[in-house]
Amino acid sequence: MKKAAIFHTSSGTLALMQSLTKEIMPEAEIMHIVEDSMIGQVMKNNGLTPEINARLAAYVHCAELAGCHIFMTACSSIGRGVEDCQFLSSIPVMRIDEAMALEAVKNYNNIAVLATVGTTLKPTLEFIERKAAEAGRRPAIKSMLMAEAFQAFLAGDLAKHDDMVAAGIKEALGQSCEVIVLAQASMARVLDKTGPLPVPVLTSPERGIKLLKERLAAL
Q1: Least enclosed by CB within 10 Å: which of 28, 65, 69, 121?
Q2: DSSP of 101-121, one letter per residue?
């Protein structure tokens, strides 16, 4: 049985990823790593630091020692840091938002990116722009940050978080975008409450797990 490690910087994504992996890739063994102090330090430092990157490398190494065949981060804020661990690792590393970013730049010319954490918004925009350049595409990309929503999420006020993200989606729809990208896995839950929308809304959890399954099967 092949084994994958999924790294979380918040326990808020754990139940969702457990459910998706059970549904999408039940044949695989999944090791979840939760390090819920890291996201606060990333936010405090307005991004990754050498110390945080060193810790990421240590977690990738731990996954190797535990017999994992691939490592994926469920947190977009640290995505580039995990990518940079590849040269140190004997197993592939990936980020959960990769499939979402590839789908956005391949199919749409006017993209709205929504986030509730500034340290997620910036790397997500950079990642989408990088993937667009690699594909020879130049989409128009607009962004929106809803920082108060994440504070509500951390405080356990999920209703307030969901209301604020839903309001952000409504605002983005008024800007004539062709697609909305939700930068964080924790935002996907809001779509259960919005009902049908006039444009696609891309989220990372399900797409990321499907790509994880494909890559694990190819190893």
Answers
A1: 65
A2: HHHHHHH-SEEEEEES-HHHH
Dist CA 83 CA 115 (whole Å): 21
- Cα separation of 11 and 52, whole Å? 18
**pTM, whole model, 2 decimals?**
0.91
Q: Which two tokens stand for residue 63?
A: 């996954």
3-state SS assignment for residue 139: coil
Residue with tokens 């509730």: 116
The C-alpha atoms of residue 130 and residue 155 are separated, in whole angstroms, by 33
pLDDT digits (tens, 9 = 90+) for 51-94: 999 999 999 999 999 999 999 999 999 999 999 999 999 999 99
How far apart CA 161 and CA 139 sit, in angstroms, is 29
Nearest Cα residue to 56 out of 7, 13, 94, 110: 7
Residue type, position 214, single letter: E
Contact 183, 202 (CB under 8 A): no
Fold of 3-96+206-218: Rossmann fold (3.40.50)
* Nearest alpha carbon to residue 18 among 205, 201, 191: 205
Give the CATH fold of the 98-203 domain.
Rossmann fold (3.40.50)
